[in-house]
Design goal:
about 375 residues, alpha/beta, Aspartate Aminotransferase, domain 2, Aspartate Aminotransferase, domain 1, 2 domains, five-stranded mixed beta sheet, globular, binds pyridoxal-5'-phosphate
Length: about 375
Amino acid sequence: MKKFETEAIRTQTERSQFLEHSTPMYLTSSFVFEDAEDMRASFAEEKERNIYSRYSNPTSNEFIEKICKMEGAESGFAFASGMAAVFSTLAALVDTGDHILSARSIFGSTHTLFTKFLPKWGVTSSYFPIDDLDAAEKMITSKTKIIYAESPTNPGVDVLDLEKLGEIAKKHKLIFIVDNCFASPYLQQPIKFGADLVIHSGTKLMDGQGRVLAGVTVGSADLVDKVYRFARITGPALSPFNAWVLTKSLETLAIRVDRHCENALKLAEFLEGHPKVSWVKYPFLKSHPMYTVAKKQMKAGGSIVAFEVKGGLKAGKKFFDSIKMLSLSANLGDSRSIVTHPASTTHSKLSVEDRLESGITDGSVRVSVGLEHIDDIIADIEQALG
Ligand SMILES: *Cc1c(COP(=O)(O)O)cnc(C)c1O
């Protein structure tokens, strides 16, 4: 295993007779067989080869192989979106009657999946408080199969102690799944802390330029095989075109994320002293309640800064309407800085109570700090606060 940056660039799968230097794009739905015996043996899985792009594709395989190396995983599968990865992974692993124990702060669509759709198949879930893992352990029942968590969380930028959660999962023989989207594999590798599976939305920092949707699940070979068996039948596979965009993007992941984090820390420090801001949350600010844990498990603080504009909803709205350069959008991890109002957008489907418990107040702002010059990012936010 070479260093992270090197694997991100040099990991490659099949090349054609033309010996392409850069990654070729295999836009093909299916692959041909030599003869009847080759066809039989391929379908019987006696040989490893590409059959049909719903199952596997060389361009997608390169993307998956890179993520496996970055996360220290045995195997993986790539999906058309992050939510396709979340749903297919859970659906492949749970049976009617199973229970999922999840951290309270999770991505809005994942919350809706837990509360609205999984119950249709008799799968229940409950939320543990992210700052009390002893309480979390006490919530495990004989039906619990999975512990599910994100860190840092969306949009609260809370941090969970992954090592401790990994120990609890191991002790109770549960499958520990981490949505590692906010950190990216460059900043944090949950498998080191006991995760069995790691899920990403490739849409965010992996693409990093807001072009494509993608998702990926990596982890232990036996669990990924279950996910693969489910996915090859239900069809959420990543398009080879999007896989090509992503495998090229991963070549610059480390250098981009370094700058995202540098800019985000500077913005967080600026906001922390600002008279119109009631609080700021960023994992690598000393004031973050989980600063020590963040330092232990992450290489840097990530690209997302959360803060609250003083004056509630009205002041919050005025802030958004005064933004000039930054985009008002729902994506994150983009080269363009983005401001989002979680209470009226990504987390609007949550009840007010659930929202507050996830740390989302009416005046909460989430900034995905991009790659523009930090002086211009701060200047726009400063004039809008003014
Ligand atoms: C965006 C996001 C997802 C879903 O990914 P899509 O690619 O939008 O489907 C899942 N988890 C987290 C933490 C996210 O930020």
